[in-house]
């Protein structure tokens, strides 16, 4: 009986260690079989919505496999003050260093979309982070020490795809001294799934221990990529390039290097590479044109026709279809950004015109109704504001607390009409 009690206690302790620990403004995940006396690498996550738990839940199985501690911030998010976030990150990392055995040579920071902004800033203006992982938002290379290693994930359905894919060239142009690589994957504007993000942990391990022998995780990574059924020579070459980048120093990829070198002039590979580069250029050009148009083209007929063209698949190849889907999402993002900016600066005439365009571009997006409600309350039209708020909820807006606490609605918060909007929720 004594041995049974001891056994159950060990299970209980391990279960605690494989759980999420909540602090005031961040969360910690300790991997399974965590040992207090052992040093662990750490990844700090910045989510654009300030949800520290979201990336932790996505990647905790990877943390178990690679034996990493994960930390998720609840403070760093879209619109948060950069000075406040910098102080928060510094304080959190120092607390982690004092409370846990952290492998300081392998501490990294990862961010998606707005979270990537804080990721890149902190990696350059602190000495904590040896590597950074970004997705969803492009960055501008900074010529300031320290120079962290950079891994970028570019989803092929992300509206920022072209800018993300251009990062390697930008870093090359400024002779960025540390290592960097961009991984293209099948995904949209969201955190990469765990299968894709597996490569991030391979990257972090390889940057920390560049000349080490490969472990079971690296062996599995190598096996999966070697045995994969590639749909094109281009896909195979890109994956082999990634393998070489991450595992070259181990001596385990000599055959892959040989294949890559021999096929760098392969006609099929070069043809697809050229075609992709052409469409990336066309998409970048189109995005610039849209941004210029939005400064002075408020004719709704023009934007209606543009949306029709983007959604018409007739006579378009797979590159064009993918490009047009990204451009449509890009217009939605710009519609939100411009509308919000005009409302914040009280340029209500411009806000009205941009909101009309935003609704044409993305009519089922609840953010259109949310921003419209702010517009109407600023125009002193509470009836139209209430109507827009009802539409916002009808379209599936989920952040009810944000609606209830929106400062612009303070004058109607106590009204029966406003209260009734949420009474059915």
CATH architecture of the largest domain: 3-Layer(aba) Sandwich
Helix content: 55-70%
Percent strand equals 5-15%
Could you spell the SSE succession in H and E letters? HEEEHEHEHEEHHEHHHHHHHHHHHH
Report the top-level CATH class of the largest domain. Answer: Alpha Beta
Question: Could you characterize what this model shows?
Answer:
By secondary structure, the protein is an alpha/beta fold. Helix content is 57%, strand content 11%. It folds into two domains: 209 residues, 3-Layer(aba) Sandwich (Rossmann fold); 154 residues, Serine Threonine Protein Phosphatase 5, Tetratricopeptide repeat (Alpha Horseshoe), CATH 1.25.40. It is built from 18 helices and eight strands. The protein has an eight-stranded mixed β-sheet with strand order 1-2-4-3-5-6-7-8, sandwiched between helices. The protein is globular, with a radius of gyration of 24 Å. 34% of the residues are buried.
Furnish the topology, listing elements before pairings.
Blueprint: H1 2-17, E1 20-22, E2 26-29, E3 40-46, H2 53-66, E4 69-73, H3 82-99, E5 102-112, H4 114-124, E6 131-135, E7 149-155, H5 161-165, H6 167-173, E8 180-185, H7 194-208, H8 216-227, H9 233-247, H10 254-262, H11 267-293, H12 300-311, H13 318-344, H14 348-361, H15 366-378, H16 382-394, H17 400-405, H18 416-423
Helix pairs in contact: 2-7, 8-9, 9-11, 11-13, 12-14, 13-14, 13-15, 14-15, 15-16
């Amino acid at each position: 009986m004594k041995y049974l009690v001891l056994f159950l206690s060990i299970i209980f302790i391990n279960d605690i260690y494989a759980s999420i620990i909540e602090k005031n403004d961040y969360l910690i995940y300790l991997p399974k079989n965590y040992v207090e006396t052992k040093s662990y690498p750490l990844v700090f996550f910045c989510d654009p919505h300030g949800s520290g738990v979201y990336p932790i839940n996505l990647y905790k199985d990877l943390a178990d496999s690679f034996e990493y501690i994960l930390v998720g911030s609840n403070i760093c998010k879209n619109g948060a003050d950069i000075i406040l976030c910098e102080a928060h990150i510094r304080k959190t990392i120092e607390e982690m260093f004092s409370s846990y055995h952290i492998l300081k040579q392998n501490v990294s920071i990862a961010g998606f979309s707005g979270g990537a902004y804080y990721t890149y800033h902190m990696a350059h203006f602190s000495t904590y982070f040896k590597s950074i992982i970004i997705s969803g938002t492009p960055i501008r290379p900074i010529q300031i020490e320290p120079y962290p290693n950079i891994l970028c994930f570019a989803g092929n359905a992300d509206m920022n795809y072209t800018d993300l894919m251009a990062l390697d060239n930008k870093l090359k142009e400024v002779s960025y001294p540390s290592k960097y690589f961009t991984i293209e994957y099948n995904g949209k504007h969201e955190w990469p799934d765990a299968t894709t993000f597996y490569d991030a942990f391979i990257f972090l391990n390889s940057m920390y221990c560049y000349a080490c022998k490969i472990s079971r995780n690296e062996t599995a990574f190598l096996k999966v990529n070697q045995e994969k059924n590639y749909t094109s020579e281009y896909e195979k070459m890109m994956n082999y390039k990634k393998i070489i980048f991450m595992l070259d120093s181990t001596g385990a990829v000599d055959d892959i290097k040989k294949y890559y070198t021999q096929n760098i002039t392969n006609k099929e590979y070069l043809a697809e590479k050229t075609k992709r580069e052409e469409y990336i250029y066309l998409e970048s050009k189109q995005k610039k044109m849209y941004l210029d148009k939005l400064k002075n083209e408020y004719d709704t007929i023009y934007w209606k026709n543009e949306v029709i063209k983007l959604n018409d698949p007739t006579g378009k190849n797979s590159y064009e279809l993918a490009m047009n889907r990204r451009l449509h999402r890009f217009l939605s993002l710009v519609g939100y950004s411009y509308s919000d900016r005009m409302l914040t600066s009280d340029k209500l005439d411009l806000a009205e015109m941009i909101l009309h365009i935003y609704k044409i571009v993305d009519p089922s997006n609840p953010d259109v109704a949310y921003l419209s409600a702010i517009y109407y309350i600023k125009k002193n039209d509470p009836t139209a504001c209430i109507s827009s708020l009802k539409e916002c909820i009808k379209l599936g807006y989920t952040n009810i607390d944000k609606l209830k606490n929106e400062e612009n609605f303070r004058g109607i918060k106590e009204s029966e009409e406003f209260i009734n909007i949420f009474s059915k929720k």
